[in-house]
């Protein structure tokens, strides 16, 4: 399944939404935890601030001088400390010249503060940083810091400042973490319960997906569009995914040509069959649907066997989308019920897994394949060509034995033009397959084509058993120059012939 790549991040913080005074308030809140302050004063709001938006006094470290009278007289006042100047400029761009002008205007080199902070929601360049450091060192400032947009966001994203982030911008990362924890816990609980209900291998077990918003179950007539948009539907589970449950949605007749990277399928028939338990209601197909299925299958069977495929569409139900699990079900659907929020287009599914199934063990991704038009819009009712009563095909003992258990049919190889009269839809018996009533096994010819011995030898390079099988049928060694007729056929029953056309 192609996983959608969704990145969840916190977008840029919009400092520009704050007016200048609120921006000063924000910086003052962040500054409280920056140093151990004796006091912090908001001086920018009153005007005539002498360049101070925020003035702060840092607590002096305890004195280690001997406790005598002269020392006590010279000791600083308890409310004094290192003076800090904090300036706030709510400007998006501050280049080196603008930084130099701000520092020159604010800091008097004759009486500099001990520390200085310039805060602005701008991204400062290296040149601006260098200018800032040089100007403040020349003016005798001992500590200085430049808080740009990146530094301010870093501080706001720290857990200790989550209350500030929420107060000024309405964002709480702590609440998001708690919410995410709750989501994960719920998804894990759903996963564990599903594994208890369905076991480690849920394949072929039935589940009913129900719309969480539905209030009319099990009465389908309450919805006029139920057929197009069902509010509950039974699906056969396929497998567990690390993030959810995969269920079968559709299996359609399909075509594939690997050398040409082409494919097609028809939606006319969905070959999904619900799981049938001993107490479940029977799945009934009406006559019209049955006839359509026979017609579509008949068309598909006449494709070369190597080009027949099944288009598989599986739905992905994520654990975190399942609100509740009723593991008992009810008398209408005696299977686990999964309550999910349905989407208008996707129903209960978070996504889909689609691929071509060539056989039970071989799956082909659709990536790199081009869809072409192979299947018609309307499928004619299948008919039969010539039904041979006096001609028969002769096969080797291995092929004859395979007829009893090969539902996919057989392939005949003829290098002597024995079967050049056979055409698709013809029916012919197999010599030596008579039952107790003397009836021979019947074959319906589905595809006839010619191939050179060279082409077949190339196909046999990775399949020595195929070469052995071909040579067994033509009774000699396969040569590159041979012209070989390939006849593909399916086993037929008498009643299938009578159903479509009487024998004449």
For the secondary structure, the number of strands is 20
Output the structural class. Answer: alpha+beta
Largest sheet: 10 strands, mixed
CA-based shape: elongated
Residue fraction in strands: 25-35%
Radius of gyration over C-alpha positions, nearest whole angstrom = 40 Å
Mean pLDDT: 86
Helix content: 25-40%
Number of domains: 3
Q: What separation lies between the terminal Cα atoms?
A: 52 Å
Give the low-pLDDT segments.
4-8, 277-282
What does this structure look like?
- By secondary structure, the protein is α+β, with helices and mostly antiparallel strands.
- The chain has helices spanning 20-31, 69-74, 96-106, 126-138, 149-156, 162-169, 173-198, 287-301, 397-402, 453-459, 464-474, 494-500; strands at residues 37-42, 54-58, 82-88, 115-119, 143-147, 206-211, 232-241, 244-257, 262-265, 308-318, 322-326, 337-340, 351-359, 362-364, 370-371, 387-393, 410-414, 427-430, 442-452, 483-492.
- The protein has three domains: 15-171, Dna-directed Rna Polymerases I, Ii, And Iii 27 Kd Polypeptide, Chain: A, domain 1, CATH 3.40.1340; 199-371, no CATH class; 387-500, Sulfate adenylyltransferase, CATH 3.10.400.
- The strands form three sheets. Strands 6, 7, 8, 9, 10, 11, 12, 13, 14 and 15 form a ten-stranded mixed β-sheet that branches. It has a five-stranded mixed β-sheet with strand order 1-2-3-4-5. A five-stranded mixed β-sheet has the order 16-18-19-20-17.
- A hairpin with a 2-residue loop joins strand 7 (232-241) and strand 8 (244-257).
- Residues 4-8 and 277-282 have low confidence and may be disordered.
